[in-house]
């Protein structure tokens, strides 16, 4: 099937819901090896049910995580892999390169919890609900 025939669905989900879903997926072992392709490692964010970009491979206009990607990294093939996850700037791209899946998942869990708490605080202060 050619990419031109695929119609990308509009992802209008609430970002807080997406982050909570991603954390739930991760905590339930969602990035473990696939039964169908156990020889391939899973890729954080990309192989998640929250990623609407696959199979389009054009993340710049669709990725709901783009707001967390530094502007200079938004042109990357997987921009979400360049989100700074901590104060030292470690990213999924860096951690997957060195091959430490456990450390990657732990750092992403921490980042997700922090972003979720931050969004919940902001919404509580402004009175915005998740409707």
Descriptive report:
By secondary structure, the protein is mainly alpha-helical. It has a domain at about 35-125. It is about 35% helix and about 0% strand. It has helices spanning about 15-25, 90-100, 100-125. The longest helix is centred in the last third of the chain and has 26 residues, at about 100-125. It is globular. The mean pLDDT is about 80.
What characteristic shape results from the CA principal axes? Answer: globular
Number of helices: 3
- Counting helices, strands and paired strands, the structural category is mainly alpha
**Secondary-structure element series:** HHH
The biggest sheet, with number of strands, parallel, antiparallel or mixed sense and barrel status, is:
none
Helix content: 25-40%
Unreliable segments of 5+ consecutive residues: none
Radius of gyration over C-alpha positions, nearest whole angstrom? 15 Å
Mean pLDDT: 80
Strand % is under 5%
N-to-C span: 37 Å
- Strand tally is 0
Annotate the secondary structure layout:
Elements: H1 15-27, H2 92-98, H3 101-126
Helix pairs in contact: 1-3
Characteristics of this structure?
single chain; globular; 131 residues; 3 helices; mainly alpha
Provide a brief overview of the structure:
The protein is 35% helix and 0% strand. By secondary structure, it is an all-alpha fold.
């Amino acid at each position: 099937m050619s990419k031109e025939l695929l119609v990308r669905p509009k992802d209008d989900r609430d970002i807080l819901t997406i982050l909570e879903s991603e954390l739930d997926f991760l905590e339930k072992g969602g990035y473990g090896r696939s039964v169908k392709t156990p020889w391939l490692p899973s890729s954080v964010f990309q192989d998640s049910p929250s990623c609407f970009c696959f199979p389009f491979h054009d993340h710049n206009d669709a990725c709901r995580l783009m707001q967390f990607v530094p502007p200079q990294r938004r042109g990357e093939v997987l921009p979400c892999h360049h989100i700074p996850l901590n104060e030292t700037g470690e990213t999924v791209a860096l951690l997957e390169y060195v091959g430490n899946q456990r450390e990657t998942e732990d750092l992403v869990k921490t980042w997700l919890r922090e972003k979720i708490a931050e969004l919940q605080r902001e919404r509580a202060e402004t009175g915005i609900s998740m409707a």
